[in-house]
TrEMBL record:
InterPro entries: Cbl_synth_CobH/CbiC, CobH/CbiC_sf. It comes from Pelomicrobium methylotrophicum. Pathway: Cofactor biosynthesis; adenosylcobalamin biosynthesis. The keyword DNA-binding does not apply. Keywords: Cobalamin biosynthesis, Isomerase. This is Precorrin-8X methylmutase. GO terms for biological process: cobalamin biosynthetic process.
């Protein structure tokens, strides 16, 4: 069997994963996603066993192409929390020369958040901006609505230009509202989950799906 970097490392693992995807395909029923979008939604369902993401997941028309091109170009990924960085396969990232970053636990970020009575997530995204990681990169938000809202502000007020925003914060305070605001952006591609549902697990699943699509494009 030819090695596929973005799949499980063993044939047994690959068989289980493929069978799981087949089950999702059978049980999901009709959907309105394109052939490129569905693998992302399918992997999100696979990661959560929650078929509501068949419908809750929305895509900017250019989202998949933008994400794949960013990965193939080795552009960085900026996450809101460490959980996303831990969850994404390092060997898969290394295959494309992609680095993933998060700054929410940095001492300077914590100090700035305390000094301004703001959140660490806000200042983490500002640090990513200052390091030049947001322009042309992928922003991945799975936990902190304030991180997503700050990215939206940076886009609208400071002309920051991520290649793709994956906006899937989970929760009850500003989660749904932040994603509704993201959906209003027309000039930056995005992938989001509507409403309160979201989480780092979903973001990791979406990123792994994009990595797999990038490898398929690479081998085409």
């Amino acid at each position: 069997m030819n090695t596929i970097v973005t799949e499980q490392l063993t044939q047994a693992g690959q068989r289980i994963e493929h069978e799981s995807f087949s089950i999702v395909d059978r049980e999901a029923g009709p959907h309105c996603y394109t052939a490129e979008q569905w693998p992302i939604v399918r992997r999100m369902i696979h990661a959560t066993a929650d078929f509501e993401f068949n419908g809750l997941t929305r895509f900017h028309p250019d989202a998949v192409c933008a994400g794949v091109e960013a990965i193939l170009s080795g552009r960085p990924i900026v996450a809101d929390v460490e959980m996303i960085c831990v969850g994404v396969s390092r060997p898969r990232l290394a295959h494309f020369g992609v680095e993933i970053h998060q700054f929410i636990s940095d001492e300077d970020v914590i100090a700035q958040a305390r000094a301004t009575n703001s959140t660490r997530a806000v200042h983490a995204m500002r640090k990513a901006r200052d390091r030049g990681l947001l322009d042309g990169g992928i922003v991945a938000v799975g936990n902190a609505p304030t991180a997503l809202l700050e990215v939206i502000r940076l886009v609208s007020e400071e002309n920051v230009r991520p290649r793709l925003i994956v906006g899937m914060p989970v929760g009850f305070v500003s989660a749904a509202e932040s994603k509704a605001a993201l959906a209003e952006i027309v000039h930056i591609p995005w992938i989001l989950t509507e409403g309160r549902k979201g989480g780092s697990t979903l973001v990791v699943a979406a990123l792994h799906a994009l990595l797999a699509l990038a490898e398929a494009r690479q081998k085409a």
